[in-house]
Amino acid sequence: MVSFIISIDTTYEMADNFFTLFFAHNFVQKSEVVIIVDGNYNLQIHDMLNKLKQNTSNVKVIYLSKVGYGKANNIGVQNSTGEYLFFINTDIFVEEGCFEKMFDALQNKIADCVQPLLIYPQSNLVQSAGTFFGPYFKDHLFDGNKIDSFIVNQDGPRQALTSALYAMKRGLFDKFNGFDEFYYNKLEAFELSYKIYLAGKTCWYLSSARAWHSRGGGRNLYSFDFRQQEAYFWSRFGNEVKPDIADYLKLQTNTDINTNCYYTIIMSQIRSWKEILKGTNINSSTFVDMPWIAPGSFNLWDIFPNTILKNPAPLLLIIENIKYLRSNKYWFEIRNNSYDIAIDRFANLVNIQEYLS
Predict the structure, then answer these.
(1) Which distant-in-sequence residues (6+ apart) come within 8 Å of 188 by Cβ?
(2) What percent of the chain has pLDDT over 90?
(3) Least enclosed by CB within 10 Å: which of 23, 24, 102, 342?
C-alpha cells in the first residue's frame, strides 16, 4: 500500500546511519522501499545495498548514472507499486510514529500532501514547518524557532512543502506528471507541492509528526548553481504567488505587541520589510534601515552605539534569523527590556527575552 522512494546521493556514513534507523520502524518493514542510486559510485554503499536487497524482501534497488533528484525520483515511482508515496532523503531521522501520523492524515483526507515538523539535530531548533512566500522570496517556515513554540505546534495548510520528507497518493503524483526534470537538485519537489496547492488541494503541515533533518547531508556531494532554477520557478509562477509572510507574523502578535510603538531597526537584505509590516498589527515610531549588515551572525556591540542599548523605547529588530540573537545574549541582558521583539525572514516573531531564556 505504501512505497518509500529514496534517491541516494550521499556518503557511506550518512547512508549507513539512515538505513539502520530507517528499517527499525515497523511501518517501513510493512512497506515497499525503492532505492535509486543516483550516480553514486561509492563501493561501500553498493555493497551495503546489495546485502540489504538480499536480506530484505521489500527492497528494490535501481542503479543510474547521474540524472538528478527529480528524474531519479520519477524513475523510482515508475518502479514502485504502492498507492501512497513517501519521499524521504537520506539525511532524515524520524521519531517513532511519524510515518503513521502522516499516513493517517492522507487516509483521513486531512491532507493531499503532508510533511512533518523537521528539526535541526545540531540545535533542536525548527528547520522547516512547511514553506511560506514573501514578496519575491520564499523559504522554510519558522526556521530557527523553538520546537515547543505555540506557533510551531499548530497544524495547518501551507502553500508548499519540502520533500526532504513528504507523502501523497500516487494518483496525485501522476496527475502532475511527477517532478519537473528541468530542475536538477532543487525546487522540483517544492514546485510539485505548490502545483498541488494551486489545483485546490491541501498541502498540510503536521506538527505532531516529527523528524530530524541533518540538512544537506542527502545531496551534498556536488556543487550546484541554482540561479537559473530559481528564475525558472519565478518566471512560471510569479504571477500566482500570494505572499503570506505577514499572515504568519500576525498570528504571533498579542495585545502587548499590538499596543506598543517600536523603534524598528532593519538588519536584513530583504527590501520589502516596510510593505510586509503593513500587513501586521505592528506599529513603528522610527525606522532605521541597515541592509549592509551581513546576513549571517552579527555582533550588536560592534553595530549599535550605546544610545540604542539605553533607548527606553521597545525595539523591533528585523534580522535574517532569530537564532543569531543567541550570540548577543549578554547585550540583551544589559538592555533588559521585556517588550523588545525580533522578526526574521523565516516568518518568526519572538519576544527576545523569552526566546533567549
Answers:
(1) 69, 70, 73, 179, 180, 181, 182
(2) 91
(3) 24
Q: How confident is the model at residue 184 (pLDDT cuts 50, 70, 90)?
A: confident
What is the C-alpha to C-alpha distance for residues 156 and 111, in angstroms, rounded to an integer? 10
- pLDDT value at residue 223: 61
d(CA 302, CA 280): 30
Q: Is the pLDDT of residue 160 over 80?
A: yes
What element of type H or E holds 205?
A: strand 203-213
Angle formed by the axes of helices 69-78 and 188-198, nearest 10°: 70
**Burial class of residue 312 (count of CB atoms within 10 Å of its CB; 0-12, 13-18, 19+):** exposed
Report how far residue 149's alpha carbon sits from residue 300's, in angstroms, rounded to the nearest whole number: 25
Residue type at position 265: I
Mean of pLDDT values over 340-355? 98
Q: Tell me the DSSP string of 236-295.
A: HHTTT----HHHHHHHT--HHHHH-EEEEEE--S-S-HHHHHTTSS-EEEEEEE-TTS-S
Q: Identify which of 300, 248, 291, 285 has the alpha carbon closest to the alpha carbon of residue 273.
A: 291
- Continuous segment of H or E residues that includes residue 158: strand 156-158
Q: How confident is the model at residue 186 (pLDDT cuts 50, 70, 90)?
A: confident
Question: Which residue's entry shows cell 546521493?
Answer: 9
Q: Cβ atoms within 10 A of the Cβ of 147, count?
A: 18
Q: Are 230 and 183 in contact (CB under 8 A)?
A: no
| Contact status, residue 325 vs residue 340, Cβ threshold 8 Å | no
Chain segment 194-221, per-residue pLDDT in tens = 999 999 999 999 999 999 999 755 555 5
Q: Is the pLDDT reported for residue 82 higher than 90? A: yes
Q: Angle, to 10 degrees, between the axis of helix 188-198 and the axis of helix 227-237? A: 10
What is the average pLDDT value for the chain, to the nearest integer?
A: 95
**How many whole angstroms separate alpha carbon 298 and alpha carbon 302?**
8
292: left (phi over 0), alpha (psi -120 to 50) or beta: alpha
Domain architecture of the chain: domains with CATH: 2-237 (3.90.550.10), 246-356 (no CATH)
Overall pTM surpassing 0.85 (yes/no): yes
